[in-house]
Specification:
There is one protein chain. The protein is mainly alpha-helical. The chain has a single domain, classed as Orthogonal Bundle (Arc Repressor Mutant, subunit A). 49% of the residues lie in helices and 4% in strands. It has 5 helices and 2 strands; from the N terminus they run αβααβαα. A two-stranded parallel ribbon has the order 1-2. The chain binds a DNA duplex through helix 2, helix 3 and strand 2.
DNA sequence: ATCCTGACGCTAT
DNA sequence: AATAGCGCCAGGA
């Protein structure tokens, strides 16, 4: 039995590696990740989100956000701090300016 | 197989 | 701007 780290599916790896490629000060979205992986793995935004909910803690999770520039309430305080630190383009509301900050996986 | 849940996204109010 | 409804779909129970 492998009692080591939680087993990651290929899909999990794919999602996490995309997040790892997001440059400092930029973001990507669950939808963008889903689009990039759909042809190979299928799945939609929720599938990508699920991966982040389970494994996000070991990557720059604040760089993977909703299409409206936010994250769930319980993550917003921490995320904002990170966004400010790395100079992520924000909107007056405090949400990320997705139009300016979006990085699309290629 | 069935039911429920969820770090989503889009449209219509 | 804020809320509601609905489609979506993988995982776990």
């Amino acid at each position: 039995m492998d009692l080591g780290p939680v087993e990651l599916t290929d899909y999990d790896d794919a999602v996490l590696s995309i997040v790892e490629r997001v440059p400092r000060g930029r973001v990507t979205t669950y939808g963008a990740i889903a689009d990039a992986l759909h042809d190979v793995f299928g799945g939609g935004p929720r599938a990508a989100a699920r991966v982040m909910s389970q494994h996000g803690s070991n990557v720059a999770w604040w760089r993977c956000i909703r299409s409206d520039g936010t994250l769930p309430a319980w993550l917003l305080d921490e995320a904002r701090q990170a966004w400010l630190e790395e100079g992520t383009p924000l909107r007056p509301s405090g949400a990320v300016d997705v139009g300016r900050a979006l990085w699309v996986p290629s």
